[in-house]
Design the sequence.
């Protein structure tokens, strides 16, 4: 292990670089974001606090016969026929480059720590399957054995068996150290990437981690899958108003693309090299749910436990939280359960503490969401301004929360949490603060 | 860095083509029987299929079984065996803080639906609209849940009640190595007391075979040991499930659990896979554990995939280390994400009985050390990623 010489040179400051439990404090020194609102955090922040939606009609493939024809696609980056693997890699790279540039860490092509990446699950896409079938030119029905017969000649090196491809290519591009970790905890993936990085730095394995969540997988089949689970909003007109978290008329989430990248660094390392500290990842909590594959436990226990564990990990109580960056998907179920959980954890303060959903504007960026929304939460801390929950026109009387309706708000925000709850019962909460004095 | 704690393997669950559980695996090896493989069902490809399993034993609700595809059932089954072996099964107070890291694939297809779409699209006036319509009408809603990689972990939470935490790693063999590495490191550092780690694979399916054949990775025609599959080599896809319970020694002692072995170290890295890279990386990883290997009587259980050039490069690297070598893939096939955990499971069996299995193929060799007390497990990915683990017998 390389205990940094920085820790020693920081001298008297060194004691302040540990948390209450004596573990290294973990700073964020670089942030990168790509969403349907644009490429880069300045564009994103301006639109996010301006209450602008990035949700639009899908233009990259025909939407006939689909119930949902809208999504928060990253059209600024997408080029014709990009497969999800390519688009996800591209936006991960753009977000990562922005974060590293801001951080000023390492040197070009040499990041001094590992990569923790939350990519979408990859698969053979229909355009490729059609091409292989064409090559097979079978008489009559084209079965899988026919596809296999010509697969080797299809020329897709390493085939489709390459969930690790994006991580591998990013590790090469950024020059990160060690084996890149690619992970999936469904809609909590981006938060898990941050958590794995936090834990690695606390263990003393490394001084820095590049944590990225990226998802560019709006395809017909992906849309159909969520549609068949009745998870998506079908209010296609106008697209910008479909995502309406915490509203009474909410009817599902809007699928979206995006990437969020954070440079995580031990505070001692960041201070020793004179880096600007954008915030502190103070703690993470996770709790899995054993109730149902797509639904939260009706007693809310896992959601409650995940927030409480995060606060306990950070060593603070619920009173110390000034803002909640909601998972807020705009599905009837999620928003109800999130309200339930927040009410249990924050008690009578629950109705007064500002809570807003970035998804009202950018949709649900799936495996990227936890990272994108942590990035926005850090910008909230930096700018002392809370992005709104837009499309909040019909309040749900059962949800008594201050959702920062429709317009951004200036506020004193010293500490915030960001929630991520996934299909499959994987829940993660991240606690972030401003730099300690 | 805080002081590192001792990490024990207190539970093992393994199902492969050799049978179910540790005893069946040990007995198979003791018989010295040839590897069981199937070169007919998916000819010309060769797979190592599982014997019939009674899933009811580990997944009592038929409704749960219906919600899973085969790779998930295999994984949930093996996870149940590991939890049972560790005496954690059915103990909610312990399972409540049992963490979990699963290395997973996913993406199983509805083959009849795909086949019908491929047939119909040729005559379709508007192929895009045709695809949308067929998918909307023909896909089973629950198939999605069987395709999602994190739903193996999700199903383990549902069926077995493991709810401390749940993480799923993606990315072929490396995912399997890093799942164990991170699980071991978390327990060693006090970030977890007990963690279930492992994975599952199911190769006896045309769709998964297609994914691998797209990379030209499958073994075709005649079966051979992993070391002897010709200039391009090939993978004989194995269906298998393998889970380990890793636990801090103190936590295990506190609940009266016995260790099967100690997991001393796990290390991983990557490189560009230029000629010589694998040898260099394995050499560096080896250096990190060499001091602990030297003091004992050690052997290597290799996870060589059979694909070239990685298999030959590993063989070359292993020669430098001078220990007896056995490749398990010849016997159980290649289970991708699950292979590393499977080999750790096999390592515990071998250590408990002091006997290596019979050498097979030109890269296997060396005499059984007496008394055998350490096993180095390798995990060199077919196209990326290298890993090593050191498992030690507890006297």
Sequence:
């Amino acid at each position: 292990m390389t205990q940094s010489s920085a820790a020693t040179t920081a001298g008297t400051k060194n004691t302040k670089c540990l948390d209450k439990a004596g573990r290294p404090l973990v700073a964020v020194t670089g942030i990168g974001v790509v969403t349907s609102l644009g490429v880069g955090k300045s564009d994103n922040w301006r639109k996010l606090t301006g209450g602008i939606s990035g949700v639009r009609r899908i233009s990259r493939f025909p939407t006939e016969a689909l119930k949902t024809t809208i999504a928060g696609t990253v059209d600024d980056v997408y080029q014709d026929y990009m497969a999800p693997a390519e688009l996800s890699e591209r936006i991960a790279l753009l977000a990562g480059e922005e974060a590293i540039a801001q951080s000023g860490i390492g040197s070009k092509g040499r990041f001094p720590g590992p990569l923790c990446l939350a990519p979408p699950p990859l698969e053979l896409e229909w355009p490729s399957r059609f091409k292989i079938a064409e090559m097979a030119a079978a008489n009559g029905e084209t079965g899988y054995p026919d596809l296999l017969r010509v697969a080797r000649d299809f020329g897709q090196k390493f085939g489709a068996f390459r969930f690790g491809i994006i991580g591998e290519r990013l590790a090469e591009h950024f020059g990160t150290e060690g084996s890149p970790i690619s992970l999936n905890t469904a809609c909590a993936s981006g938060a898990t990437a941050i958590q794995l990085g936090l834990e690695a730095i606390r263990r003393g394995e490394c001084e820095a981690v590049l944590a990225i969540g990226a998802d560019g997988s709006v395809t017909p089949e992906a849309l159909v899958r969520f549609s068949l689970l009745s998870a998506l909003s079908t209010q296609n007109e106008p697209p910008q108003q479909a995502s309406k978290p915490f509203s009474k008329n909410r009817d599902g989430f809007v699928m979206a693309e995006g990437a969020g990248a954070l440079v995580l660094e031990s505070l001692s390392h960041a201070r020793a090299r004179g880096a600007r500290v954008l915030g502190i990842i103070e703690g993470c909590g996770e709790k899995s749910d054993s109730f149902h594959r797509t639904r939260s436990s009706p007693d809310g226990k896992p959601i409650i436990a995940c927030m409480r564990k995060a606060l306990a990990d950070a060593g603070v109580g619920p009173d110390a939280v000034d803002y909640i960056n909601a998972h807020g998907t705009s599905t009837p179920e999620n928003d109800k359960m999130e309200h339930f959980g927040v009410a249990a954890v924050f008690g009578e303060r629950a109705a007064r503490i500002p809570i807003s959903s970035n998804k009202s504007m950018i949709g649900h960026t799936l495996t990227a969401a936890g990272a994108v929304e942590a990035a926005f939460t850090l910008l909230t801390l930096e700018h002392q301004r809370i992005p709104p929950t837009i499309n909040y026109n019909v309040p749900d009387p059962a949800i008594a929360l201050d959702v920062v309706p429709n317009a951004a708000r200036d506020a004193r925000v010293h500490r915030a949490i960001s929630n991520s709850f996934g299909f499959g019962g994987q829940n993660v909460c991240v606690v972030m603060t401003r730099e300690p004095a | 860095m805080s002081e590192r704690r001792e990490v024990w393997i207190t539970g093992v669950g393994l199902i492969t083509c050799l049978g179910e559980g540790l005893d069946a695996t040990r007995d198979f090896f003791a018989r010295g029987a040839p590897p069981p493989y199937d070169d007919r069902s998916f000819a010309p490809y060769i797979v190592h299929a599982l014997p019939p399993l009674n899933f009811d034993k580990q997944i009592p609700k038929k409704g749960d079984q219906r919600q899973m595809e085969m790779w998930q059932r295999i994984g949930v089954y093996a996870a149940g065996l590991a939890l049972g072996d560790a005496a954690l099964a059915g103990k909610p107070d312990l399972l409540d803080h049992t963490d979990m890291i699963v290395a997973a694939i996913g993406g199983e297809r509805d083959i009849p639906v795909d086949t019908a779409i491929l047939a119909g699209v040729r005559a379709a006036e508007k192929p895009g609209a045709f695809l949308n319509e067929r998918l909307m009408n023909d896909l089973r809603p629950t198939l999605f849940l069987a395709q999602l990689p994190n739903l193996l972990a999700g199903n383990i939470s549902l069926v077995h009640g493991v709810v401390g935490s749940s993480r799923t790693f993606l990315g072929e063999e490396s995912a399997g190595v890093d799942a164990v590495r991170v699980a071991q490191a978390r327990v060693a550092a006090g970030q977890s007391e007990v963690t279930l780690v492992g994975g599952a694979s199911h190769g006896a399916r045309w769709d998964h075979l297609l994914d691998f054949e797209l990379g030209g990775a499958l073994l075709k025609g005649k079966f051979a040991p992993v070391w002897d599959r010709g200039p391009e080599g090939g993978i004989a896809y194995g269906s298998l499930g393998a889970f380990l319970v890793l636990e801090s020694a103190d936590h295990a002692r506190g609940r009266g659990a016995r260790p099967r072995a100690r997991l001393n170290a796990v290390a991983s890295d990557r490189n560009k896979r230029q000629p010589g890279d694998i040898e260099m990386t394995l050499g560096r990883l080896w250096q990190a554990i060499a001091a602990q290997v030297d003091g004992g009587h050690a052997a290597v259980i290799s996870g060589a995939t059979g694909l070239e050039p990685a298999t030959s490069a590993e063989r070359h690297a292993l020669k430098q280390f001078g220990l007896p070598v056995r490749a398990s893939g010849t016997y159980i096939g290649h289970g991708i994400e699950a292979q590393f955990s499977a080999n750790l499971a096999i390592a515990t069996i071998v250590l408990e009985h002091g006997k290596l299995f019979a050498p097979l193929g030109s890269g296997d060799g060396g005499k059984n050390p007496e008394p055998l007390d350490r096993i180095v497990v390798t995990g060199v990915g077919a196209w990326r990623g290298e890993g090593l683990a050191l498992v030690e017998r507890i006297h």
Notes: Chain A is about 30% helix and 15% strand.
